Structures are given as structure tokens and as C-alpha cells.
User: Which sequence fits this backbone?
């Protein structure tokens, strides 16, 4: 149980967490960096504490500073949001050892899922379908050739400590194999201090479909439907939606219940996301995210549930008050990530927002910390708002999104709103079910 929580994050998600806390009667301490001193959500929190200088490494990523902030303010729990320390097993362990509550699964579970080989093993045990491959360390030896011949080309070499698209290499021919293994190992060692790599069959044209789960401390767990996050560029999601177009409900229900089984076996607590590739009408697990995700909103829209409130309630030790039979999916929801960036060359566009007028109306939701006069710092991710639409059908959700994007007035900085509008006009997007390569291919062709 806790009644005071430290928000170890910034921007729209800090405000989103504050709102959920208000509804539950939990007091908030907002941690902030010197660059965020003037932000509205720092002022609206009951209490705020500066944790360091503007660069993330000296504030939002500073584990000792965050823990100290919780201790000196008397916060009994820490919500890490997404990014920053949200999947840092060591930070979670420090929080546990200090006798505080980390809002998320136990540090041991974060650590296990952070090792992608270990995660895949757990999924195979629970019956969650995985990409065909070899579930163990791959080394540049003769064994590798045997392993890869049995999988069949093309293959992808991935870092066990990686994830989110960092440290991967596609190999299409035998002659390139050994060099690719060595290069991926070296990169992985440098980037993650873990040179372990593994191999999977490479799927050429998949979609990115993910399943949301929610678990309490008493072994109760539900799956909350799926999202399609295929519209991405350089591993940055641009548009997400729920439910995914043309993924059979019985497949989702089957795999969803297997995800629930995996969570029960892991002793998983909190919100979690199982990431899959979807190709040839099959789902293949690739990795698990042990945090609240940016795109949780589209799941909220089609389920009617407040996921952040649920996350806090299960962290407080409450029992889930919903069962699988209570969960249904209604309508369609789309999220456009609004970034402070040049819509043509994607370069960040920080600076003062001279005028800010977000849209409204039926079926539109805006999650943002921005208002007129806000200065977008150059130190962090460029996402400044999420525009979320809801409709009875996908067509209605798209139309409402287009209306919202056209109404959205942002002056003083550049945003990717024009990019969103042109994606939403694309026939391929409107048809639905585009692959992970859709956006990059379309950008290259225009
Ligand atoms: C793959 C793949 C194709 N085949 N694995 C990239 C991010 C990381 N989470 C896993 N990724 C991929 N793994 C196999 N066996 C293609 C990707 C991939 C991707 C996946 C999801 C969303 C966007 C992507 C963009 C490029 C590659």
C-alpha cells in the first residue's frame, strides 16, 4: 500500500500518471530536471523535486538521484513511466532493496525478460508461439552453420541484451554468416556490455502486432486485446491502432490466453506487452516489454479501462476486479504521435510553442503536457502530444483523426502533423494491414 508516489519521468506521461493518481487519492511527487523547471505538470503536482541537470544521464536516468528523491520526499513508490529507467532491472532492485515499491514487475522478472534468449525460452515453455530459430547463444563456429542451415535463409542475428531494434543483422547468404555473427557480437558488447547473440528465421514482410496484459499479485491475469504498431520509421512508432486489422479474433484469443499463462508462470505483476510479428496469418513472439507503453491509450479506448489506474492499483496490492469474461472490445482507435520535428527531414524542432490549440470533439483525445508558451527542450524525445481518435469503425476513427489533425494549431515549432495527414490519405494505409516496411518504403518513393 502507498499513498505518495514519485513520478520518475517527464512530459505527457508524467501528466497521465498524475491524473491516475488524483483519481485514486494518491499524492504525487514530480521528479524533474533543470530543463523541465517551468513545465506545467511540475507546478500541478502536489510536490516536485529537481533530480539534476538537463541531460537525461544526469537526471531521469540517474538511479541514485531518483531513489534519493523518493527517500527525501517520503514517497513510498516510484512510477518509472516509459523509456528512461522503466525497464532498468538494477534500478528496480535498488527500489525494492530500499523497501519501496517499483510500479512494474519484480526486478528479477525485468532482468529475465531483458535477456531475449531467456524471454523466448519462457514463452516456448508457456506455449506462446515464437519465430523459428535457435533458442541459445550463437557463436561463430562450425555449429553455427549447422544451426542456420536447419533454420534456412534469410536469418536475423540479434543481441540477447538488445531489443527495440538495436543490434540486429539480416543474413541472406552463407558466405556472409561468420562476419555477421562477429560484427553483431562486437556491437552488442559495446552497446549492452553483453556480446551474446542469437538467431531467428528472418520474416521479410511482417506486421508488428502486440498483446497487452494486466496481472495482479494473486495470480490473476487478463489480456486486453491487441494493437498494430507497424507504421514506424527507424524503430520509432508513428501511428498505432487497436484492434489490428484482419488478425482473426480467435487467433488473438488463443495467443492472448497463452500470454496470460506465461505471466502466471513468470509471477508477472502489472502491465506488460508481448510483441509479435504477424505474417501468413500467424503470430510469432519476438520480445516482451515490462512497462507501460506510449500506445496504451488505444487499448484504453477500445476496452474502456484506465490502464494506468489499474497499474497503480495492482502495484498497491489490490486484487483485479475484472475477469477475462468482463473484457470486450468496442470500436476502433488510432493514435498519432505528434513530434516536434521537421515533417520532411525528421530533424528535431525544439523551441518555444508560441501558440497551441489542440482539437476536440466526439471521439478525440489529446494526451499532452504542452500549452501555449511551453518551450520544448532539445534534450529529450521529440514527442509532445498524442492525438487519439475513436470511432465505431476504422473508417470513422480515420475521419475523426483527419479532422483533429486539421484543427490542431501549433505555432513556433515544426511538427509532424503534415506527415500524419499525408499517411492517412494513403490508399495503402486506408486499406489497412500495412507491414513494418510501409512507411519507409513510401517515404523513399515520394
Ligand atoms: C525481426 C524482424 C524480422 N524477422 N525478427 C526490430 C525491433 C525488434 N523488436 C525486433 N525487430 C525485428 N525483428 C525476425 N525474426 C524484423 C524486425 C523489425 C521490426 C520489428 C517490429 C517493428 C519494426 C521493425 C522494423 C524493422 C525490423
Assistant:
Amino acid at each position: 500500500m502507498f499513498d505518495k508516489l514519485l513520478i520518475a519521468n517527464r512530459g505527457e506521461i508524467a501528466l497521465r500518471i498524475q491524473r491516475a493518481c488524483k483519481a485514486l487519492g494518491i499524492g504525487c511527487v514530480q521528479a524533474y530536471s533543470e530543463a523541465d523547471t517551468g513545465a506545467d505538470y511540475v507546478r500541478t503536482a502536489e510536490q516536485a523535486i529537481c533530480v539534476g541537470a538537463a541531460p537525461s544521464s544526469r537526471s531521469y536516468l540517474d538511479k541514485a538521484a531518483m531513489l534519493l528523491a523518493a527517500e527525501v520526499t517520503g514517497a513510498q513508490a516510484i512510477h518509472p513511466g516509459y523509456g528512461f529507467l522503466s525497464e532498468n532491472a538494477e534500478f528496480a532492485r535498488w527500489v525494492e532493496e530500499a523497501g519501496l515499491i517499483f510500479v512494474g514487475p519484480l526486478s528479477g522478472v525485468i532482468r529475465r525478460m531483458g535477456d531475449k534468449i531467456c524471454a523466448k525460452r519462457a514463452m516456448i515453455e508457456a506455449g506462446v508461439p515464437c519465430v523459428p530459430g535457435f533458442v541459445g547463444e550463437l557463436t561463430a563456429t562450425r555449429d553455427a552453420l549447422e544451426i542456420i542451415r536447419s533454420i534456412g535463409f534469410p536469418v536475423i542475428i540479434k543481441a540477447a541484451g538488445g531489443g527495440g531494434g538495436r543490434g540486429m543483422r539480416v543474413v541472406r547468404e552463407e558466405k556472409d554468416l561468420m562476419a555477421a555473427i562477429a560484427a553483431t557480437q562486437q556491437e552488442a558488447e559495446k552497446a549492452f556490455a553483453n556480446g551474446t547473440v542469437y538467431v531467428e528465421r528472418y520474416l521479410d514482410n511482417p506486421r508488428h502486432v502486440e498483446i497487452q496484459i494486466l496481472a495482479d499479485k494473486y495470480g490473476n491475469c487478463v489480456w486486453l486485446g491487441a494493437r498494430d504498431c507497424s507504421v514506424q520509421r527507424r524503430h520509432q512508432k508513428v501511428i498505432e491502432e487497436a484492434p489490428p486489422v484482419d488478425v482473426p479474433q480467435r487467433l488473438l484469443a488463443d495467443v492472448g490466453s497463452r500470454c496470460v499463462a506465461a505471466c502466471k508462470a513468470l509471477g508477472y505483476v502489472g502491465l506488460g506487452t508481448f510483441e509479435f510479428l504477424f505474417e501468413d496469418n500467424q503470430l510469432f513472439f519476438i520480445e516482451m516489454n515490462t512497462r507501460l507503453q506510449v500506445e496504451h491509450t488505444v487499448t484504453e479506448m477500445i476496452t474502456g479501462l484506465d490502464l494506468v489506474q489499474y497499474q497503480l492499483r495492482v502495484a498497491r496490492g489490490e486484487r483485479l476486479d475484472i475477469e477475462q469474461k468482463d473484457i470486450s472490445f468496442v470500436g476502433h482507435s488510432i493514435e498519432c504521435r505528434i513530434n516536434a520535428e521537421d515533417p520532411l527531414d525528421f530533424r528535431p524542432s525544439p523551441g518555444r510553442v508560441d501558440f497551441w490549440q489542440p482539437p476536440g470533439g466526439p471521439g478525440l483525445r489529446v494526451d499532452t503536457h504542452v500549452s501555449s508558451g511551453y518551450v520544448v527542450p532539445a534534450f529529450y524525445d521529440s514527442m509532445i502530444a498524442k492525438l487519439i481518435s475513436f470511432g465505431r469503425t476504422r473508417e470513422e476513427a480515420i475521419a475523426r483523426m483527419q479532422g483533429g489533425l486539421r484543427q490542431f494549431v501549433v505555432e513556433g515549432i515544426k511538427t509532424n502533423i503534415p506527415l500524419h495527414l499525408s499517411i492517412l490519405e494513403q490508399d495503402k494505409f486506408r486499406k489497412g494491414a500495412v507491414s513494418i516496411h510501409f512507411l519507409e518504403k513510401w517515404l523513399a518513393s515520394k
